[in-house]
Amino acid sequence: MDSRYVRQFKKGALEMILLCLISKKETYGYEIITKLNRSAAVLGYACEGTVYPILYRLQEAGLIRCRLAPAAANGGLKKYYSITEQGRETLNELTAFWRQYTACVDDFIGEADSAEV
Question: In this predicted structure, what is the pLDDT of residue 88?
Fold first, then answer.
């Protein structure tokens, strides 16, 4: 089921999913990847090479911000991400669109299902 069409569809939704996760609480990359991988049966497995470039894009767009804090485990620094006001507005727009979009697609799927009978 992981055809190129499915992979492309998943990529398109990932920015919105990341904004949703970050909007709930300040979080860091590994925690985001772990949460995504809990839904791996549907989303597929997330990896650093997919998630971090999106986080950088969201930050450059002003939708999220990050802060560095000491990491307890290794004494290094950890990046924590939080959503900005612009990010919240964008997320609200995206989720409103998503609800309309999925309702429209569901209507088409329903029509296709009833045509098969």
Answer: 98
